[in-house]
Write a structure and sequence with these properties.
TIM Barrel; two-stranded antiparallel sheet
């Protein structure tokens, strides 16, 4: 069962290439932070600017550096079904534990198109698959009826990362899919609201920076200690907001560079943060005790 805290990790670059040493150090930090797993090559990992082989390499290195201590959910979705199936097969060969499949973006498929796309991907792998609903980026929502149809027809489609920002939708998913279907929040600011209506954890951006704190918050809520979980949320909510002051993953990579984990390097069309926003993020990190 893929419950708990999964970090949607950044892809560190150096001189235009994947920084393997930085990635290994960073994954060690995540393991020490007691997260349940990692999602390499997702939105936060700049998957849209990774080449096929780079995507495969990032996943393979994450598997290697995790050393079986935490789970790896490989970001292998794409807007072309052939690409998604190719990357998913490669992730399985690399030893990933599951695949995260984003809704095809830009081409805006119908619900039937979404069904056939995800079914085609599921048919080429034995990996558990989590769908990824993020209509704000993809321009299309995976309808609840489509999720249910897929879960019924594809036994390895076991859950969803929900990033539509709606507690109502989480409630509807839980009612339609039953207790065993995994629902993970895709919004750090909504972890507790989503969990209160049926989500079982999060695929988090903020846990790049504060893995132990996000993991503890999720565990406390699942253990029936919402007040203690809320205290963590309240302390780090300003950080969560500032990590999205510009397009993800620009702020989180800037923050990790401030913490000396990575070189602050992006691929166009992403660019460094506006200086005013950078200063605001740094100030928030200091108030939260992350920077001195």
């Amino acid at each position: 069962m893929f419950t708990g805290t999964y970090t949607a990790i950044v892809t560190p670059f150096k001189n235009g290439k994947i920084d393997e040493a930085a990635l290994e150090r960073f994954i060690d930090f995540q393991i020490k932070g007691r997260v349940d797993g990692l999602v390499p090559a997702g939105t936060t990992g700049e998957s849209s600017t990774l080449g096929y082989q780079e995507n495969i390499d990032v996943v393979a290195r994450a598997v290697k550096f995790a050393r079986g201590k935490i789970k790896i959910i490989a970001g292998t979705g794409a807007n072309a079904t052939a690409e998604a199936t190719y990357l998913t097969r490669a992730a399985e060969e690399a030893g990933a534990d599951a695949s995260l499949q984003v809704a095809p973006y830009y081409n805006r498929p119908t619900q039937e198109g979404l069904h056939q796309h995800f079914k085609a991907v599921a048919s080429v792998t034995s990996l558990p698959i989590l769908l990824y609903n993020i209509p704000g980026r993809c321009g299309v929502e995976i309808a609840i009826d489509t999720v249910k149809r897929l879960a019924e027809s594809c036994k390895n489609i076991v859950g969803i990362k929900e990033s539509a920002g709606s507690c109502d939708r989480v409630s509807q998913l839980r009612a339609a899919l039953g207790p065993d279907f995994v629902i993970l929040s895709g919004d750090d600011s909504l972890i507790l609201p989503f969990m209160s209506v049926g989500a079982q954890g999060v695929i988090s951006v903020a846990s790049n920076i504060i893995p132990r704190e996000i993991s503890e918050m999720v565990k406390l809520f699942r253990a029936g200690k919402p007040a203690a979980a809320l205290r963590i949320h309240e302390k780090y909510y300003p950080l969560i907001k500032d990590l999205f002051i510009e397009t993800n993953p620009t702020p989180v990579k800037a923050a990790l560079a401030m913490m000396k984990f990575i070189t602050e390097e992006y691929r166009l069309p992403l660019v460094p943060m506006d200086p005013e926003n950078r200063n605001a993020l740094r100030a928030t990190m200091k108030r939260c005790g992350i920077l001195k």
